[in-house]
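User: quick one - fold this with magnesium ion bound?
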Amino acid sequence: MATSTYLEAINQALFEEMERDESVFLLGEDIGIYGGAFKVTKGLYKAFGGDRVIDTPISESAIIGSAIGAAITGLRPVAEMQFADFITVGFNQLVANAATLYYRHNIPVPMVVRAPSGGGIRGGPFHSRNPEAWFFHQPGLKIVAPATARDAKGLLKSSIRDNNPVIYFEHKYLYRRVKEELPKEEIVVPLGKANISREGDDVTVITYGAMVFECLDAAKKLFEEHDISAQVIDLRTLQPLDMELILQSVQKTSRVVIVHEASLSGGIGAEIAARISEKAFEYLDAPVKRIASLDTPTPFSPILENEFMPNAEKIYNAILEIMKF
Amino acid sequence: MATSTYLEAINQALFEEMERDESVFLLGEDIGIYGGAFKVTKGLYKAFGGDRVIDTPISESAIIGSAIGAAITGLRPVAEMQFADFITVGFNQLVANAATLYYRHNIPVPMVVRAPSGGGIRGGPFHSRNPEAWFFHQPGLKIVAPATARDAKGLLKSSIRDNNPVIYFEHKYLYRRVKEELPKEEIVVPLGKANISREGDDVTVITYGAMVFECLDAAKKLFEEHDISAQVIDLRTLQPLDMELILQSVQKTSRVVIVHEASLSGGIGAEIAARISEKAFEYLDAPVKRIASLDTPTPFSPILENEFMPNAEKIYNAILEIMKF
Amino acid sequence: MSESSGNIEDPVKIELFRLVLKTRMTEDRIIALYRQGKIVGGVYTGRGVEATTVASALALEKKDYLFPIHRDLGAHLAKGQTILNILLQYLGKGNNLTKGKESGIHFSDRSLNIIGNISHLGAMIPVAVGVALSLKLQKQNSVALNFIGEGGSNIGDFHEGLNFAAVQQLPFVLIIENNQYAYSTPVEKEYRARYLSDRAKGYGIPGYHIDGTDAIKVYQTVKEAVERARSGKGPALIECKSFRMVGHSAHDDAFYVDKELRKKYEKKDPLIKLEKYLLKNNILDHDSVDRIRQEIAEKIEDATEKAIESPLPDPEWAYGAIYASNSDRMAYGD
Amino acid sequence: MSESSGNIEDPVKIELFRLVLKTRMTEDRIIALYRQGKIVGGVYTGRGVEATTVASALALEKKDYLFPIHRDLGAHLAKGQTILNILLQYLGKGNNLTKGKESGIHFSDRSLNIIGNISHLGAMIPVAVGVALSLKLQKQNSVALNFIGEGGSNIGDFHEGLNFAAVQQLPFVLIIENNQYAYSTPVEKEYRARYLSDRAKGYGIPGYHIDGTDAIKVYQTVKEAVERARSGKGPALIECKSFRMVGHSAHDDAFYVDKELRKKYEKKDPLIKLEKYLLKNNILDHDSVDRIRQEIAEKIEDATEKAIESPLPDPEWAYGAIYASNSDRMAYGD
Ligand SMILES: Cc1ncc(C[n+]2csc(CCOP(=O)(O)OP(=O)(O)O)c2C)c(N)n1
Ligand SMILES: Cc1ncc(C[n+]2csc(CCOP(=O)(O)OP(=O)(O)O)c2C)c(N)n1
Ligand SMILES: [Mg+2]
Ligand SMILES: [Mg+2]
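Assistant: Sure. Structure tokens for the protein plus magnesium ion:
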């Protein structure tokens, strides 16, 4: 066992998968000698050389598009967006090309797009995005969003081994803030399985990414102060969604709060709420409550960004409200 | 009064607005002499000349981007996407640039992007899209989707006069199939107001675009065969959503079916269902049911496309199911 | 006909003719079926650009990758696609290569290393570049070739793809089919460069501007670029100038087309030109031409009959998988 | 210094010097504030490219539109922006031009016809082209000028925007700040063209490749291009070659930069070069230089003090409107 940050866990997954499978290679901006804007690919250029760690021009559409081409001809590319925000430049390649090739032409597209996402780092409107919902509305993509170092590592490995295009959202805020002991043995976390981060009986809190920790903080406080026992579900994979686990929990607790950092309207929380309301209608004792960022761009100034984002306090209040319903 | 098709109504709105306001101009592919792929802009080049009806190169990002530039310097551009599907190429300009300028820099962006959307025309995966949900998850855009000729005309006028970026989804299937008598007087339909297309007390059916007619057919049959009275709401504007009208109706009927042609998961129906479940929880006698296209690309062969899309029969069955709940 | 056509062997010239003719005749049949209401969706034909599409694809080896676009039926045929598969596609039949899920010309064929396009113009360029990258990384000595219209050449992906290919010196050849119209839009509203091949310099790669109605010239130029790419010397951009002799699609009467230009290019019909050349140089005689025509006609008859009789898809197939499983046969070339 | 600098008047040369110096000194202060932990977010400075950014913007008239990007503080200053407004922005203060909603260098100023950038490189090019279109349609006789890095010049929007501007012959000038690195990436991994200005030919517009460390040369070339554009002759592409003398941002030590190249360009420091030229040619004497420096230093002191004292935004402003109302003051230039 050794302590790894979330960021190091991602680096380890890349290293191990590249060692295990020659067909895995990386492409993106500044990922070579520099090791990436966040140093996630540090050391990989040295270990695997310029043919497997390719610095690209600033051309997100070409990065994603050429990853598709490489994927359909026997390789397993892992493309890096320097920030998740810039994925919009390569949007068409992902939703029109990568997502649909298997359904249309029966051609698997085994590729990963790593996208450092999320706010709380004073990045302003264009370095703070959580764009997962756009891709959720495109059949054919898988979407991953780990919260822990263990999941960051194990889910990235599964993503690389998956035979489909996977968008892997790594939360920038967690890069160096999350530290865990990771076992020496290989960690592979299957896609499509949520995790219960905290057991509880009174209310189900569904979340993912950096908000997992805010939810856990809120849950802890609620237990200490109000004896409310919240079950916190970390989705880990957003597409496919682990509806089974969600519904099991809702049937037990009958109350639900959904939390995500992406803006509220049209977020993935809407789909989860809609499915719960449809599939577990008779179990619900209270309306499904969603807590998310404001329906605005991410403002820059810390005071404003704090107001914009969900946090433990807002979640705490929302759960209390739902418990009183 | 004269009979106008849905398509002619759009053409009239463009003509009248260009006459009324010199700052309105059009840009897009083949919209000049040719009058656009669907002939929506027919006659406008002749009437207003090449400076106000600009044929562009095939460059969706430049079309949308330059519309933004024109909009912030005193003009009111109306950009045409040849098919709504191709809006993904200019996605970044819409979500990162147009949508955020007002919040960030206090600069209004009065522009319209017209996007011929929708299936049922054997267009296959790339000429059948209903991409509205992506834009719904981007604060700062308005989204319009008319079903009738009257609304097509009146909403386009409001869109052009609006001081914000508006995406106007005109449904290709309706272009020549919808015909109405339109009054000689000017029609201006305000953004943000839904319409009750059919009054009813037993169940609320919320929809928009071409699905309005499928819902009306289903409603008619349900009334005739089962004496079920369905209230059909045509949203008309998707952003901002007319939650007031929706909630009023739900409080009356206590049962809801949401229908849209876009794929189910992550569609706008999810957000509406989530809001209803949150805001009208105590009024609901049955789960909110959603009927939408399959979570796949649009298949080409008519047999497959028919299976893929919602229709009156599927809606009829869903309503019956909800009524029996 | 091109001056320098001497170094192309006669059998290749005959094959070029056979394929250009086959393309023309197959498309004529598709148009006839369209007028009979048998085709599902739209039809875009290559009348006038067949020399470009056929000769470019014929310059490839079997292991090379072909990325045809909407007007490139000739390229499909030249790479070995059957008329039957094409017709099944246009008729939306269940036993076609996409099981009815894709439209007319949008289909791939793993056995031929053909990768079908999406509608978004230019979007296949980065994908083809990625294939070229993969071929280079896997040291496969093969090449990826992609087409783009002069209209489509103004989309961002053209720039990003070609630039990346140049930086990486990939085995990639991009053919601009400059048929002088993008739907109704004439070139002066599409770009202002004298030649689109002038763009090559901005990527540091060779650019060629050639007569795209001259099959032999196209073959020669593309062959050279393909072999250059194969030998590791990087990508090339080839602008083939021709003319769209019909409307944008089967429902377009092309009223907007310059009459003079049309007249000029009627004389440059790639099929007639090639036929005349072969006859004049005694590479083929009239009898052989007739025989070739007859053979193709029979194939088309046969394929049409089979295609029409073929079953429609099962409605259940709409629910087809959107995700590959881990047991799926993976890549091209496996 | 440039041979042909003769036709630029001395006061302009002095103004160029004053602005380059002001840029250097302001950025030095911002870096100092950054090291004190007072700045919110990242800091990207223009050390080494000030001649390009300052001279390009100074070549514009007041009514012309400026689109600066992340390294172009010099352009803001040359177009008339105050040091105070810039500092307020970097400190995320509530009384800045974006009310705290936008980061350091991303801000617009209607009163100066400056339109701030979004982070997505190249995305402002089509917008600037649209402004140029609007200026042309409204016959305003003004010009839009946009910057892009040599790295950003490989994004699709560069291609789409420039091509459209060329077709429409718009009053648009695009300056490529080729500082030889895009973050850590050297030019050979970004593009393969000999000169990026070679791309101009592919759009049918003039392209210039000039020394971007030579403020007078830049001023001259840009002025010419701007006046050409103003007179209706269409856009131009100007590549200004310089060198990024610091890391990509304040936290980057630029270990990856070629040592020889750095040495070479230290001798071409745009500020030192311009100062030497002015002194040598007796356009300024040492005393005047000192006085200018002193004046700027005082302004910076003053602005820093005011900026630091300024209030933070009200948390409620996060809920700021995302939609304009119909009573909003609309366009630039109103
Ligand atoms: C991104 C995009 N925009 C618009 C279209 C619609 N469209 C299909 S073909 C076409 C014209 C293409 O012209 P060109 O590239 O010159 O090819 P040609 O049809 O002349 O062979 C257009 C505008 C599209 N398919 N993709
Ligand atoms: C579309 C996009 N991709 C990536 C980035 C991240 N990024 C910001 S600056 C930069 C390097 C820019 O290099 P260049 O264009 O040469 O400008 P310079 O910083 O050298 O002035 C990168 C990659 C971005 N802002 N936008
Ligand atoms: Mg063309
Ligand atoms: Mg640079």
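One thing worth noting: Chain A has a mean pLDDT of 97.
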